[in-house]
Write a structure and sequence with these properties.
Blueprint: E1 9-14, H1 17-27, E2 31-35, E3 41-44, E4 50-55, E5 65-70, H2 74-83, E6 92-93, E7 96-97, E8 103-105, E9 108-114, E10 120-125
Parallel strand pairs: 1-4, 5-10
Antiparallel strand pairs: 2-3, 3-4, 6-7, 8-9, 9-10
């Protein structure tokens, strides 16, 4: 059996389901598909992938990127999300520096932002093939 063709779900903890639903649907533009039997909020992603938001009043965000969205044009995506209230992070570290919110990692570009619970999310643009 191979999991490579199995639908995948990313599960993120959130402290306030209603606030998170609004952010992920309105600010990020994800399709809300409903609530699962266990109470998770389900959002549709490309193909058969889904995002589940699990409400936990004691939830703590991960210290690293929890999820990354591949986009064809990172500058346009940052501009679009910015008009919907998404605030991008800027870094000036020895091994990670952003310019206009974008970090160039070899041929890949990336930009990070946080959801209302502090989960670190990312946009990434792969190099042209």
């Amino acid at each position: 059996m191979s999991l490579s063709s199995s639908p995948a779900t990313t599960i993120l903890p959130v402290t306030d389901a209603a606030r998170a639903r609004t952010y992920y649907a309105d600010a990020l533009g994800l399709e809300f598909r409903g609530q699962s039997a266990d109470g998770n909020l389900i959002f549709g992603l490309e193909g058969s992938a889904t995002l589940a938001l699990m409400e936990d009043p004691e939830a703590k965000p991960s210290a690293h990127t929890a999820m990354s969205f591949e986009v064809p044009d990172i500058t346009a995506a940052i501009g679009d999300l910015g008009t919907r209230g998404v605030a991008f992070e800027d870094y000036d570290l020895p091994d990670l520096k952003t310019t206009d919110h974008v970090c160039v990692l070899g041929a890949e570009k990336a930009a990070w932002f946080k959801d209302p619970d502090g989960n670190i999310l990312c946009l990434h643009q792969n190099p042209p093939e």
